[in-house]
Amino acid sequence: MTEAADLHPPQGSGVSGSASPRKVVCNACPVLCQISEGRTGACDRWGNFNGVLTRVDPVVLFKKVSGTAGEITGFLESEDWDGSVVSEAPVFVSGLGSGTTYPDYKPAPFIVSSRHEGVDMVTVVTEGIFSYCSFKVKIDTDRWLGPEQATVRCQGEAIGHVTTAEYGSQMLSLGGVHHLTGGTKKEGRVTCEMMMDLGNRKPVELQVEGGSRLLIEAGKPPVVNGVEEQRMRVGCGSATIGIFAQQWHGHVDEVVVVDDHITGVLTEHQAGRCLGMPPSGIKIKGKKSTPGRYFQVAKPGTGWGGTDISDPLSIISGFEPTVARPGSRILMVSTTGEDAEFFVLDEDLKMVPAPMPADVQAVVDRIGENCEPALTTVLFLAGAGGSLRAGVTDNPVRLTRSIKDLLVNVTCGGAPVYLWPGGGITLMVDVTRMPESSFGWVPTPAIVAPIEFTMRLSDYRALGGHMQRVQAVQDVLKNERVRVVSWGELNPWPVGAAR
Ligand code: SF4
Fold first, then answer.
1. How far apart are CA 97 and CA 46, in angstroms?
2. Residue 132: how many CB atoms within 10 A of its CB?
3. Phi-psi map region of 297: left, alpha, beta (phi>0 left; psi -120 to 50 alpha)
4. What pTM does this model have?
5. FRET label pair with 473: which of 104, 117, 230, 299, CA 20 to 30 Å apart?
6. Residue 32 CA: which ligand 1 atom is closest?
């Protein structure tokens, strides 16, 4: 018998109230909806059913079985269920559908005991109402989306901005407290809807000011100005030269890899020199960085290598006559291999298009083969602060310290999170590892998302946890409607991941 088995189960959801004989007051968020019989509140998450405040969605409960990743195995009313699933396989009560306790001091909706490898564990389960939250979006493309710091709009409203580009990807920062609550009512509403859709893996249409039109969806290829991106570049132009120099050697006399960041020139580049390739005498526009590496050969755009060019010869300013050799074979290629042309230098030192030899085409194809599929990655970044922590303990700083000491495993809908160092509980989670439709909203406006804190029962007691509210999972099942979902192999089992 676990230590928790001696403890008292909670008294209902902890969220209830009454306004009039026909209405109930929901106090699960500061809006305090007065809900008429048979209706739901503003967020559609709570309703008045037969005069009782009731969660609309069942609690999502994960059952650990192998070979059925993500499959929904049942939708069970508590009276139909004898809890047998619990004895057959470990289960994890997630925050999804659990309800909230914000903004007052109530304990979390579920504080559930379990036993893992002989150790008594506890998981504090809630839905967080996040006013301070945003989405960091990584878009695998070298096409230019817009200037850094440019405003990103949705339905005409400012909802975020372009932030610092990363290797092979453009980055957006979307949502956040200033767009949610610091602008007009419409800006807040559109921001909230956009965030909910993005988190729930729905497509979202955006326009970057002075830049591109985007259609993005978590885990799917981005669509830039109506064109679906296929490949993430293999590297910058210099890296591409470094990777493929040996394979080009003997088949060409010069290669120019066109890239918005660094355009590479094989014979000048250290890779070409190491292979003993003689200089071709080619002269490239733009700013020379180090040998064989050029910045700003063209403007950014949606053409070759994320530049605005469609004619590769437009970045060539000529040839050094004392060095160039008529008959030289020259390849120009982009960093994804999607654009490539082959030329032969004539007697007037002009580059004349020629059929691509098979050996050269094979290396161009190899560039494409080495590109990864272009995807949109969506990370939810949120601060689990405020009174959410009071739902875990009566001394919230101990929760923060315990998390920092790695005594507490924090998950969102069972998905592992990255916790930022420094103060507070600032977490980041990949939305594709969370259950579908994990995100909701309340009209404050703010985003609602599941969050769970799993730890040893002894640690929970030590941090001042609400021990009188700990209940066994069987007790949750007796009193609640649940939806059982098979645990996918993608995420580590949250109880096992806690120390
Ligand atoms: S918006 Fe939703 S959570 Fe907030 S009070 Fe209304 S029904 Fe309850």
1. 10
2. 18
3. alpha
4. 0.86
5. 104
6. 5
Atom of ligand 1 nearest to the CA of 100: 3
Ligand 1: which of 15, 29, 56, 196 to mutate, judged by most atoms within 8 Å of the beta carbon?
Answer: 29
Nearest-CA residue for ligand 1 atom 7 is: 41
The per-residue pLDDT for range 405-443, each reduced to its tens digit, is: 889 999 999 999 999 999 999 999 999 999 989 999 999
More confident residue, 90 or 96: 96
| 95-127: burial string, b at 16+ Cβ within 10 Å, e else | bbbbbbbbbeebbbbbbbbbbbeeebbbbbbbb
Lowest mean pLDDT segment, chosen from 49-63, 337-351, 415-429:
49-63
What's the rounded Cα separation, in Å, for the pair 421 and 330?
50
Ligand 1 center from residue 87 Cα (angstroms): 35
CA–centroid distance, 155 to ligand 1, in Å, is: 26
Nearest Cα residue to 412 out of 429, 390, 436: 429
Give me the residue label for tokens 């804190």.
453
- Residue pair 353/341 in contact (Cβ under 8 Å)? The answer is yes
- Residue 85's CB: how many other CB atoms inside 10 A? 20
Token pair for residue 246?
């040996």
Nearest Cα to 120, choosing from 474, 390, 472, 475? 472
Q: Which residues line ligand 1 (CB under 6 A)?
A: 26, 28-29, 31-33, 41-43, 45-46, 442-443
Q: 448 CA to middle of ligand 1, Å?
A: 11
Q: Is the dihedral of CA 217, 219, 220, 225 positive or negative?
A: positive
Q: What is the 3-state secondary structure (H, E, C) of 223-265?
A: EECCEECCEECCCCHHHHHHHHHHHHECCECEEEEECCCCEEE
* For ligand 1, mutation pick of 31, 39, 126, 131 (most atoms within 8 Å of CB): 31
- For ligand 1, the distance from its centroid to the CA atom of residue 181, given in whole angstroms, is 17
**Would you call the peptide bond into 355 cis, given omega within 30 degrees of 0 as the criterion?**
no
- Cβ pair 72, 484 in contact under 8 A: yes
Count of residues making up the chain: 499
